[in-house]
Amino acid sequence: MSHAAVTPLLPDPHRRRGPALAAGLVAAGLLTMVQLMVARPMLLAERFVPGSGWIEIALLAGYAAWLAAALQRPGALPRLRTRIWFLFSMVFFGQLILGMLGVEQCLMSGKLHLPIPAMVVAGPVYRGEGLFMPILFLVTLVLVGPAWCSWLCYIGAWDNLLAKRSKLKRPLSPRWREALRLGFLVLTVAVAFGLNRLGVAGATAALVGGAFGLVGVGVMFAFSARRGWMTHCTAFCPLGWLAVRVGKLSPFRLHLRNSCVSCGVCRTDCRYGALDRAAWQNQKPHVSCTLCGDCLETCGAIELRFPGLSPAASRRLFTVLVAALHAVFLGVARI
Description:
The chain is globular, with a radius of gyration of 20 Å.
């Protein structure tokens, strides 16, 4: 059987102006709050030239507007998401490299921390302070749910590129994947707490965290690149386990309509292993779904829902929020 036809989202360029304007305003509003409320300048331009943060806000708001409009084009989402996601990763790690070379303005607090998503949880547990990234993570989950994992995680972009190099092979069952991630989360928190209680020096703790990060990169090359599904993100990353569960605070939900004919096309699009026969029968993806949106471009039987809105309006709202957050992260997310 053939899969259900896909209905274009906003084919008319004039109708894309509303979401573009909204995304620009949301990004500008959030960045203005950061500019005014955070004592240490967070915007990179402000750290070099006082007052220039407002110029950066304007540029990032314009970028958010462009991105929201571009994402409305039928069929554009999968490729564009991969490109802008990798762009964010390059900017993030570019700042890290500059910080390591002595440009302290490129570091979050002027001190070097580990660029590992698990440290968003482990870092505050070990240090007993440093809540900016956990708060940013929580705000993201409230606004766009687990889309943190498929749009905004600086490491996830690598896993995505490596997984898409190979034809999708059968992933582990959802139960095993989630059990592994939960185990790594418990281990991460326990080790961080133990290092704190034992008074282990920061350099030693950093070596432990760095080893964990290197194992994660090894998982990407050993499994994701060969199996075609995002093994690091769905079976290894402790932060991912939190994202897909705490992300339920967001009202956005992916739903499979009764018109689904179980053709299997969506399964090959989903690198998170969230769509299979069980998902089709239950009319909803597995918990590993990160709202990446790739499946929405190939099957009209899948739709994104938000309470009180039509599926088309739900997608527009999601696009506005995720485009705005992407621009905000470009401006403030750094180690």
